[in-house]
Amino acid sequence: MKFGKKLANLREEKGLTQEELAGEFQVSRQTISDWESDKVDIDDETVAKICRCFNVDINYLCDDEDRETQAEPVCVDDNTKAQNAKSALAIWRVSVAISVILFAMFCTLTVVVVSMLVNNKVAMPVLLIAGLVLSGLATLMALVMLIISSVMFVRSKKSLATEKSNI
What we know:
With 167 residues, the chain is an all-alpha fold. Helices cover 75% and strands 0% of the residues.
């Protein structure tokens, strides 16, 4: 079954007209008609919104093959969404811990290298500076990991809040 036919079936199952669905997505009724007749391609963001609106898996909606094993839409339940939010929080916490540890190590190494260079107690200052640069890069990578995990966490929280407000 094609995307458009699946969308029309989902809309009808929910008891919505094309006009009502158009209002939800802030598009014209003709746009909904074009989607349902597969006349136009839909951008990924809109497909994701449709999946959230009808609480179906994107694979169900976008897979054109007819499968007997997946005749019904696969619903994503609130437990799965909550688990995803908890996983994102756990990843974020680990990222914070790693970032703090690496930053502390970088600061400590910086103090040691500077004091050794000032006191001329080092035979190969190039190696110390290389170590300092490498530890700085490790700290920078940890901060990037922290930023990425923070974005994941915020998105999962927003997704969960959006789903709860739609209920």
